[in-house]
Input
Amino acid sequence: MPLSACQLFFDVISRAALFELCGAETRKDICTRLRSGYRMPGMQLTRAGSIPDAMYVVRFGTMRLHAQCHGIARDYGPGELFGEIALLGLSPDGLRVR
Output
């Protein structure tokens, strides 16, 4: 039987600074809103200047965040999340993710 999004991501959500003050029920609610997806290696996930609309959790492999003016800003690996700023309605300038 496949794992639910809540089972897959609850520990990641629990470690995220944005959610550290949330109770277990709120974290579970957040997890139920997550969807699992697959991205091919090298596929661009976001574009510089686009409005963020999702939070991402890396399960396998790595995702590379590029800062438009500064080269590579950070690599994200399994168990890490990024894009949580989208949940706050904020938009970082000049970032793209592959």
